[in-house]
Design goal:
Blueprint lengths: L5 H10 L1 H22 L6 H28 L1
Helix pairs in contact: 1-2, 2-3
Length: 73
């Protein structure tokens, strides 16, 4: 995710608690969705779709933080 901001992401994960929480939650959702889609965790398509929407919202929020931090640098 966002390979052009790889270094900035690493820095923000340690320096920005809000960014770190968003990033961690995004990764948790990614893992949970993969488990549901592969059948490891039981879920219907509605549950998966709901989590995907939450994950996408988090990705948008992460991008906003990254853009602001990049422009401030």
């Amino acid at each position: 995710m966002f390979p052009e901001y790889r270094d900035l992401i690493s820095r923000l994960k340690t320096e920005d608690a809000h960014f770190s929480r968003l990033f961690e939650r995004h990764n948790e959702l990614d893992h949970e969705i993969r488990n549901m889609e592969s059948g490891v965790s039981p879920a219907d398509s509605f549950a998966i779709e709901t989590l995907k929407k939450e994950k996408l919202l988090l990705k948008d929020k992460l991008y906003v933080v990254l853009k602001k931090a990049h422009e401030a640098a």
